[in-house]
Amino acid sequence: MKMFSMDKKDILLFLCFSVAVLTGPIILEPFGAGYPDLLQKFAIFGIFALGFNILFGLTGYLSFGHAAFLGMGSYTAVWTFKLLSMNPIPAIVFATVMGGLFAALIGFISLRRSGIYFSILTLAFAQMSYNLAYSVLTPITNGETGLQLNQADPRVLDVMFGRDYGAVLPSSDFFGLDMTGYPGFYFCGIVLIICFFIAMRIFRSPFGMMLRAIKSNQNRMNYTGFNTRPYTLAAFVISGMYAGLAGGLMAVTDPLAGAERMQWTASGEVVLMTILGGAGTLLGPVIGAGAIKYFENIFSAFNEGILMGIYDFLPETLQHIMVSVSGLFVGEGWHLTLGALFMLIVIFLPGGLMEGFNRIKTLVTNRTGGGSDGAATPAAAE
Amino acid sequence: MSKFEINRRGLLKSTAAAGAGLALPTMFTSSAWSAGYLNEPKGSTVTFGFNVPQTGAYADEGADELRAYELAVEHINGEGDGGMLNTFSSKALQGNGVNGKKVVFVTGDTQTKSDAARASAKRMIEKDGAIMITGGSSSGVAIAVQGLCQDAGVIFMAGLTHSNDTTGKDKRANGFRHFFNTEMSGAALAPVLKNNYGSDRVAYHLTADYTWGWSQEGSIKKYTEALGWKTAAAVRTPLGAGDFSQYITPVLNSGADVLVLNHYGRDMVNSLTQAVQFGLRDKQVNGKDFAIVVPLYSRLMAQGAGENVKGIFGSTNWHWSLQDEGSKAFVKSFGQKYGFPPSQAAHTCYSQAILYADACQRAGTFMPSGVGAALEGFEFDGLGNGPTEYRAADHQCFKDVLVVKGKENPSSKFDVLEVVEVTPRAQVEYPADMLGGELGPYNNGA
Amino acid sequence: MDAILLQILNGLDKGGAYALIALGLTIIFGTLGVVNFAHGALFMLGAFCAVSVKAVLSLERVVEDPNQLTAWGTPMEIRTPFVEVWFGDFGATILDYSVPVSILIAIPVMLLIGIAMERGLVRFFYKRAHADQILVTFGLAIVLQEIVKAQFGANPIPQPAPEAASGMIDFGIMVGIDAGNVVYPAWRLIYFVFSAVVIGAVFAFLQFTTFGMVVRAGMADRETVGLLGIDIDRRFTIVFGIAAIVAGLAGAMYTPILSPDYHMGMDFLVLSFVVVVVGGMGSLTGAVSAGFLLGILQSFASMNEVKDILPGIDQIIIYLIAVVILLVRPRGLMGRKGVMEH
Question: Which residues belong to any copy of the Leucine-binding protein domain (chain B) (predicted)?
Fold first, then answer.
């Protein structure tokens, strides 16, 4: 085991992850989730959660304002589309950079405090951004309606290269490859794989070790005369860039940026995704993001008619009873399922969904009589 | 890795799509599939997408919209008593579905958030093969989804959306609105206000600080000032402020004698309740009775304000107490199915579903450009609003507007509003280019 | 001047609600070390105690009148509340006073809910990470909220104040200002007084009873108190119940000001956390003063004169103040060192 084989395990994990992402449309089809928009959302929120985890999972700093960077990324990307070009590359580059800059600004101030004081500072900045974007900053953000593309946008670079979109509204395209539908998903998926790789490198690097040390005892670190702030700030900025990138990708696959992306509920969502999947694990946040988005999009879509169909095999009275009981949990009641899921997971699987997988893995390896070393220790939690 | 069951068809479909996506990018540019149109129904059914708020502050309104849609689908498919199909002036629909296909539907939750609404609409388009999207309870969502439908290439039949922008600045060829807008509210309401309160009045606006609020404030200001009113102040309030006391107390000593609440939904319930609490309804200023005006009423929401709506003027798209044949038929079939009268949101959604189905039937196709052409300039009657026209230039319905007042002696909990005046269509009409925006060409999808 | 006085009253009123919610939240933080994201839901449940009381009081006898028909053709129903059928005018009076009456119901109900929550769920999370506490209590809040929605719908439900308290009181005269300049709704003054009384009662309870002493000691140093052989767990259950009562009362009495709906708890949740943190973790006085401070500043920021200079300031004032205070005073107004800093 140990250090030597670690790399091998990582390579295996990375390869498995890449294959899983690229074959997502096939794997998820039987679950009703194999359509482009949801796949894109999985990838985008996977990136968002992955970045959030670099801050929260490694350093333990719980930011409640990461949605601000997501929103910043989206606005930047749409403005890039409007001003420069419909090509997604400049859009996501600028989105990442702006996400990072915004994070550097907020992080610089917020990281002067720790614990809940830090959480509230980040929350306050994000809420201010949201409220202003919704109302006073409407000339820049187009307020409630959200920033949209316009036929009359300048698109300087496109004009320079003689790209003309005619009378229709343009959509983002990667050198002719339209960024909606499956190509959009593969674009996001490849970015997700790259992001996963970077996150993995960070987790395994001395920098990552340093961040974990900060989590376990910052005071001790400070007493040794070690200044932890640059490290936490770096983690904060990196996770802000991930968020900005995710926001940019949202705009790439769907060129619209709304203020509600910055609201505290959106910040809370990524916190929940990370904890649900397993904070501090590499894969957990991506899985958590997928789970929440799946519930939001699939469970909310069940209506009485569909339920009637599902319970068709039952006698009629029983069918009606089952439909009204299940109806509480799906369709307009999908929030209830989500809330209950949060509770069940955290009660029975303290380490999030990843702990569940690890337990199953341990169970399987124990059954088969294989060496249970390493796999049984969730503390390692990779 | 755990085992996943893969069904063969799904596997083939996705592999094909994945392969095509990776290898043949040009397939996805719009010209390749120009023969047909997006989600063209091939089987014996056609799928409508009902996208309504099921969670959040407008969940009850969304639930009512969904009830209306289910009723509309029943009627289109020839079940139930036929509702307004019997009174509708166009007789194209035969009660056997649309273009020979039975109508089925899928539903989704907008959460009254643009992102969620678009994600939900995309699911219906990409996964469920919906041929059109309809519903919603706010203008921000309507504009966002309308933009999406334009890009994707399906028709959007807007639900409850009152902002001018939906068929003004942000109008799209694939989008159609039956509901009225702030411009019409202002034009209809101002003369009634003048008749009741005189032309020498000073108004104080409290305005929800987002696009619809500003739109509403602008229209009311424009039409009341034209009649001689003055505007003391127009104060923006944050969305969902909850307690509006800090905005209401400055009204007390401002010298204004009318308070205009450009709020909707929960904001309206709270600001109105609190304004009444601060004694504004019984106040005397400049020797006149103080008045409160709520430009856009929703009966569902007015119930939340309880007694406080009594005697307060506003406008509404439709009300169940109307006595024309269409309204009576609709209220009867809705009430018999659900046990209570429909809201204006339910009415506009029902009408939109019927209008869309009828246009498809007349056009003989579901292709957006064909359906759009059938809707453009379409004149009809019998859907509860009197003679109505879908104006070709901006895809906005023009019809009479109802001015209503909170009822003094309600006979039931649904009976909170009474119709004061039906402002004729001619009075609320405005030139199509006044609000700006471009329809652009129809998009039939890839 | 009058305008400023009115805004102070508005601020005190709002601050009363903020302070009551923050008080319970900070007690739970301080004693149990639990980040309770379901605290807003407790406020909401309190409000729905009032709604339920009114719903029960206005249970109606339904008589169908075959001579009258509804618009959809079924017989018209004549509805009279049973209390009026049985008690006549006195019944109508009870119905009118349903909000104050609901307080009597809310106290035992909220106590039970609080105890059930603590025993059934929260106690398993004392030693867990804050993140886990957040997830589980947030999940609980959503579940409670959805149950209320399934029962009462999503629309706000009107809860008028009693007839006698729905008028205006000339507050100006009391402080020596000309009549008619500073008139204020009676119910809002009642709410402020009520919140002051509840806050006072909680403080007195913690200050002057042995029980309160143990709780305060527990807030300061839980381990030592545990070592002294005091059954701190039992007390913590009751502490949670008290916090639930305070939040519930705040909610029930607030209903005439804000028509309750199932989502109102979430709207107050973030705000109450800001209040607690601005006040300083582990400080009751801090939470209360921060509640009133933020309430008043929010009112001032909403004045037209202020908004003319700084557009949109009223939208962000709470958060701006929070940032400024936390930067100037690292642990909020009166926070104790080491509490929730990690």
Answer: 45-407
Domains in chain C: how many in total?
A: 1
- Pick the more confident residue, A166 or A288: A288
Q: Tell me the per-residue pLDDT of A261-272, one tens digit each, with 9 for 90 and over.
A: 998 889 999 998
For chain B, positions 325-344, list CB contacts with chain C under 8 A.
Answer: 328, 331-336, 339, 341
Tokens in use for C32?
A: 């149990």
Q: Which two tokens stand for residue C160?
A: 């008028």
CATH number at B242 reads 3.40.50.2300
Per-residue burial over A43-59, b if 16 or more Cβ lie within 10 Å, else e, is bbbbbbbbbbbbbbbbb
Instruction: Evaluate if residue C91 carries a pLDDT over 80.
Output: no
Residue B366 in any domain: the answer is yes
End-to-end CA distance of chain B: 37
Partner residue opposite B144 with nearest CB, options A138, A256, A301: A256
**Domain membership of residue B234 as a residue range:** 183-316
Region A267-296: mean pLDDT is 91
Q: Do A301 and B106 touch (CB under 8 A)?
A: yes
Angle at which helices C186-208 and C232-254 pack, to 10 degrees?
Answer: 170
**Within an 8 Å CB–CB cutoff, is residue B419 touching chain C?**
no
By C-alpha distance, which of C279, C261, C258 is closest to C199? Answer: C279
Residue of C nearest to B413 (CA): C79
A87-103 tens-digit pLDDT:
899 999 999 999 999 99
Verify that B169 and B140 share a domain, yes or no: yes
Residues B156 and B220 in one domain: no
**Angle ∠(A121,A126,A130) on CA atoms, nearest 5:** 150
Show the beta-strand stretches assigned E in B80-126. Answer: 102-109
Range of the domain at C159: 2-328
Q: Are B200 and B163 in contact (CB under 8 A)?
A: no
> Do B89 and B148 reside in the same domain of the chain?
yes
Q: How far away is chain A from the Cα of C120, in angstroms, using its nearest Cα? A: 11
ipTM for the complex shown: 0.88
The answer to whether residues B56 and B174 belong to one domain is: yes
C337 within domain boundaries: no
- Which H helix or E strand runs over B349? helix B344-363
Is residue B62 within 8 angstroms of chain A, CB to CB? Answer: yes
C81 touches chain B (CB under 8 A): no
The domain spans of chain A are 16-279
For residue B250, give the nearest of C3, C153, C181 by CB distance.
Answer: C3
Query: Residue C187 is nearest to which of B63, B247, B277, comparing CB atoms?
Result: B277
Q: Confirm whether B4 is domain-assigned.
A: no
Specify whether the CB–CB gap between B445 and B39 falls below 8 A.
Answer: yes
CA angle at A191 for the pair A345 and A96, rounded to the nearest 5°: 95
Instruction: Kindly indicate the confidence band of residue B19, based on its pLDDT and cuts at 50, 70 and 90.
Output: very low
SS3 assignment, position B380:
strand
Neighbours of chain B (3+ CB pairs under 8 A): A, C
Taking only the tens place, the pLDDT of each residue in B374-422 is 999 999 999 999 999 999 999 999 999 999 999 988 888 888 899 999 9
Residue B192 lies in a domain: yes
Whole-prediction pTM value?
A: 0.88
Give the range among A325-329, C20-24, C152-156, C317-321 with minimum mean pLDDT. Answer: A325-329
In a domain, C251, yes or no: yes
Of A151, A300, A331, the CB nearest to B440: A151
Number of domains in chain B: 2
- Tell me, what's the pLDDT at A173? 80
Q: b/e for C190-203, b at 16 or more Cβ within 10 A?
A: bbbebbbebbeebe
Query: Residue B332 — pLDDT band, cuts 50, 70, 90?
Result: very high
Decide if pLDDT at C244 tops 90. Answer: yes
B219/B264 same-domain check? yes
Spacing of C-alpha A369 from chain mean position: 37
The answer for residues whose C-beta is within 8 angstroms of residue B304's C-beta and 6 or more apart is B266, B269, C155, C156, C157, C158, C259, C261
